[in-house]
Amino acid sequence: MDTAPQEQGCRRTLFLIALVAGLCLVASVYAWEHNIPLFRLSTPAPPYPTPSVAVAFDFPLQPPGAYGPYVQGLTGPLAVDTRYGAQNPAQGNRPNCFRDVTGGTVPFNQLYHAGVDLFALDETGNVVWGGASGIPVHAVADGVVVFVLDAGREGEIVGIEHLLAGGGSVYSVYWHVARPVVRAGQSVTLGQPIAVVHDMGLNSHLHWEMRTFLDGSRIFPAGTAGARGTCNRQIAGVGYTWDDDPARAHPDYYGYLDPIAFVTAHR
Ligand SMILES: [Zn+2]
User: Fold this and answer.
1) How far apart are CA 130 and CA 119, in angstroms?
2) Segment 159-218, tens digit of pLDDT
3) For residue 207, how far is its CA from the centre of ligand 1 (angstroms)?
4) Residue 174: how many CA atoms within 13 Å on its side-chain side?
5) What's the CA-to-centroid distance between 108 and ligand 1, angstroms?
6) What is the pLDDT of residue 31?
7) Which residues have CB atoms below 5 A from the ion given as ligand 1?
């Protein structure tokens, strides 16, 4: 029996839709496996007002004692350490987007954590898996929101600039948040709720950075691993630091600060 022309056209349309969906899926998986970010900072960045001077800082999750990094042997049994500056052999040697002097990729287990992952802790200091999901995230000081990025399954990322009394700025960056209630260009005050912790199941946590730069690409001098290629490629929020010169490998070299130490010194 002959097929009606409309039915043929319909099948062709369905086939094309399936083909496009399939290609999107393949591209997404490729991007994920090769650490190609699927989100971009819109350029140019929107103009925003100069922040008022931040006179005091505090922790983004309250009360501070109820949240902390995962530390092997201290807050749980896994072989990972989510404190600032920690290296994580448990992350494996899969390639990441940093490049060594030969142009080769740098294994993930050589990267240093550039922030602190705040998990919910119970009264004995052990991680409560998933306990941070939905918890309000507060601005750590007076400042101006400089970006809000949608990172897909990673949740959203909020960046705030804080003007220091002695001159210069620091930036607080909050990864894996959801339902942001601030937008770029908006002034915020110390303790103001900006979002909630994104639901990532058992792994729900706030990745929190304090840094002296806005865009990671600007602070990598020529000849460093960062200049050869970073995970972010102009996107705010590298999340990790690495350099193939051990003398430069310490995260502070890149302008990342220890968030807990910084806030403790500026409370
Ligand atoms: Zn983290």
Assistant:
1) 8
2) 999 999 988 899 999 999 999 999 999 999 999 999 999 999 999 999 999 998 876 666
3) 4
4) 31
5) 13
6) 43
7) 117, 207
Task: Give 164's contacts (C-beta < 8 A, 6+ positions apart).
Answer: 53, 54, 170
The CATH number for 64-265, chosen from 3.30.530.20, 1.20.120.1760, 2.70.70.10, 3.40.50.10790, is 2.70.70.10
Model-level pTM greater than 0.85? Answer: no
109: its two tokens: 């287990």
3-class secondary-structure state, position 42: coil
Helix (H) or strand (E) holding 11: helix 5-33
Structure tokens at 59: 């922790």
Distance 18 CA to ligand 1 centre (A): 36
In this structure, of 30-44, 131-145, 152-166, the range with the lowest mean pLDDT score is 30-44
